[in-house]
Design a protein that fits this description.
Chains A, B: This is Benzoate carboxyl methyltransferase. Two copies of one chain form a homodimer. The first copy, chain A, has 353 residues and is of the alpha/beta class. Chain A is 43% helix and 18% strand. Chain A contains eleven helices and seven strands. Chain A has a seven-stranded mixed beta sheet, sandwiched between helices. Chain A is globular, with a radius of gyration of 22 Å.
Chain lengths: 353, 353
């Protein structure tokens, strides 16, 4: 069975998907031992961890020995299937695999990033003055460009992955989305809007040129569930097993699920700023230089704190489980890992539990 | 088609095998265009670049974009097959792939390194006094331990790769070997003997303890063609397409094929020392500490120069092309990439030209 994680990064959560898949298989094996022949006993799992070539794959690879020891200890070794882990550098908006090779694609918190800033915005023929993403003052033409880019990217992504998946292969995507129907007031629009405010303050202080801010656009779009569903439907390539939107606090250290009160908005502002800085620092540095980083994110932390005092805002997160439809030109028997075809059925069993 | 390079490193030659395989396929496509349907037109090639987890995969991955551009330019793009490059961290003395997945294994200048120093030597129950590898004063018990380690490693390697290869899959290995029948006077024995001499000088100067030198053993064995052939025969897993020994000058900058004279033995000594330092520096540093490195390799360069003044010595290099025998328990139709089965035949066509 071949499993690919798209946008794996190289942090403490990177190997989570490997753990989860191995754990699901091991549990299934343990369940059936003593009764019938365990159906996943001879399963080999090949994992591909994908990210852009600039990702720290060295760090990731050097953590694998320890990971393997811990995984074996936790699951008492014998329950785990044989598994292999490779690194795969490249954008998931390009082909990453030969035809019909992959049984399961997974991607966590990556798919809201677009393949590029829409050409009209990056050329400056259309300008989103004072903003870095869609916000309250964004003109409709800019909204349309971001939406179009999302539709093109998602549609292309579905085509690429459908070619790479075995027949009836599956895909689980988790990404930031939008709950508010009004695209100008999406929850992520507030987040990026508060960062744009901090940049505007630097413009007022004369530390950043206004043109520099106006020419900076995030390659980002947080779609609504309906927008995502529409592209999937139009593609005619996948059936939707499951689509759901849940919410996650802006502050990653705030695990209070209910209530509309932020206990310590100053600290939450700092936490949010740290988190967002880790994500966008390379983009900011590339466009504005690194001199402004410290002050920018200090101001951003204060802006976030002020916002959270008024209203506790959450990220809407879309979880999407898709199953590839049969491709008419490749009958099922031609799938590229016929020795793994049992693996595919097993993965479906595991996924359906 | 799946191609794996074992011990890929991360230098300027790392992507050579990718170029060569793509070039061979592109040439075959160009040959047949205009005549019959090109047999390799729809071939996708998936490369796995393998090395130990400490290899600089980041450097390698960051060079891929440029490599792809140059490859497309050189071959005018359209002749190249679709290809994908993954990194695979791990020792090639362990399983690296699921069963019956790989069409071609390649390994260049790695397979003379053993999986470990023989246990009796590393525990110190047997000692190779004053030496770091087999040399003139090495006792027969030590020679036997090195030989046994080679046989075990090679036999294990053949079993692992045979499980991973598709039926009739192929393997091309290039590694340092031995031409001299006398194992105590192998060409590599001279090389390591001159490094041992430099370490002995440091012992005499009181900068390295004698016990430290006596407990240092290279996990290395340079077999003769007959020794390699014998292990392959005993394994009953592979047919030998081709086995050959050629010779390469110690000094990588000396491209004079004939003649027994080294033009500038001082410079050649420096060149050889640089080259060997790049290979064994991590092992030396780990055992002796980094303080001795500069002086050690200066002395080694002088020892090599003195040796080359007396006799121009060459590395014997064994090139080995193997084809996997059918595995009785997996009939050919069960190979893991049935959609690539045409690829396998094509690879055989390419390899036989």
């Amino acid at each position: 069975m071949v499993v690919a994680d798209l946008g794996c990064s190289s942090g403490p959560n990177t190997l989570r998907v490997v753990s989860e898949v191995l754990g699901a298989i091991a549990d299934r094996r343990e369940e059936t031992v003593g009764g019938q022949q365990p159906p996943v006993l001879d399963l080999h799992v090949q994992f591909f961890l994908n990210d852009l070539p600039g990702n720290d794959f060295n760090l990731l690879f050097q953590s694998l020995e320890l990971f393997k020891k811990l995984a074996a200890k936790e699951k008492k070794g014998e329950a785990l299937p044989q598994y292999y882990i490779a690194g795969l550098p490249g954008s998931f908006y390009t082909r990453l695999f030969p035809d019909r090779c992959v049984h399961l694609f997974h991607s966590s918190y990556c798919f809201m990033w677009r393949s590029k800033v829409p050409a009209e915005l990056s050329r400056g023929t259309v300008v989103n003055e004072g903003n870095i993403y869609i916000w309250e003052t964004t003109p409709p033409s800019v909204v349309q460009l971001h939406r179009k880019q999302f539709r093109e990217d998602f549609s292309q992504f579905l085509k690429l992955r459908h070619n790479e998946l075995v027949s009836r292969g599956q895909m689980v995507l988790t990404f930031l989305g939008r709950k508010n129907k009004d695209v100008l007031r999406g929850e992520l629009s507030y987040m990026w809007g508060l960062l744009a405010q901090a940049l505007q303050s630097l413009v007022q202080q004369g530390r950043v040129e206004k043109e520099k801010l106006d020419s900076f656009n995030l390659p980002f779009y947080a779609p609504s569930v309906d927008e995502a569903r529409e592209v999937i439907k139009q593609s005619e390539l996948f059936d939707i097993n499951h689509i759901q939107l849940f919410e996650s606090n802006w502050d990653p250290h705030d695990d209070m699920d209910d209530g509309d009160v932020v206990l310590d908005s100053i600290q939450s502002g700092v936490n949010v700023a740290q988190c967002i800085r880790a994500v966008v620092e390379p983009l900011i540095t590339h466009h504005f230089g690194e001199e402004i980083l410290g002050d920018l994110f200090d101001m951003f932390a204060r802006n976030v704190a002020k916002h959270l005092q008024k209203v506790k805002t959450r990220y809407p997160v879309i979880v999407l489980s898709l199953k590839a439809r049969h491709a008419p030109k490749y009958p099922a028997k031609d799938s590229c890992h016929s020795v793994f075809s049992r693996g595919q059925q097993r993965m479906e069993d595991i996924a359906s539990n």
